[in-house]
Amino acid sequence: MTTCYCGSTFLFENCCHPYIKGLAKAPTAEALMRSRYSAYATQNADYLVATTHISTRKFHKKVAILDWSKSNQWIKLEVLASTETRVKFKAYYLDYQLKAQIHEEFSSFVFENGSWFYVDGVYN
Predict the structure, then answer these.
(1) Distance CA 52, CA 81 (A)
(2) 6 within domain boundaries
(3) Which of 40, 76, 98, 111 lies 20 to 30 Å from 33 when distance is taken between CA atoms?
């Protein structure tokens, strides 16, 4: 058993895993963002597509998501700020050349039909 990829102190099985497997719904935008990071770390492109809002889903192809998630080694997630519908974070990873990278994003989320969805993000 391992602690969750999202940076919480909980085990993955008790944190993001139930969201990724569809056993529960993320209760907040931040919880969804954390579970999406964990989905990148575990190469679960289906979850990433399913949790992207229908209005922007066409910009996020499953094959590209899977390729990007597999070509990187995910190190850690740092949540910098969070409101009800926005989350600013840094994702640390090693790229395919094992070069350290930081993906910093200010993401927007929407709550619709009982579920949170990723809409888009502004990258730094």
Answers:
(1) 20
(2) no
(3) 98
Residue 26 falls inside a structural domain: yes
The per-residue pLDDT for range 9-21, each reduced to its tens digit, is: 999 999 999 999 9
C-alpha distance from residue 25 to each of 4, 42, 51 (Å) = 17, 18, 10
Which residues are registered as beta bridge partners of 104?
90
Whether residue 1 is contained in a domain is answered as no
Q: Could you list the residue range(s) of the whole structural domain that residue 33 is in?
A: 12-123
Distance from C-alpha of 111 to C-alpha of 115, rounded to nearest angstrom: 6
Domain count, the chain: 1
Amino acid letter, residue 38: S
Residue 118 in contact with residue 53, Cβ under 8 Å? yes
Predicted TM-score (pTM) of the model is: 0.94
* 85-116 per-position pLDDT tens digit: 999 999 999 999 999 999 999 999 999 999 99
Please report whether residue 5 resides in a domain. Answer: no
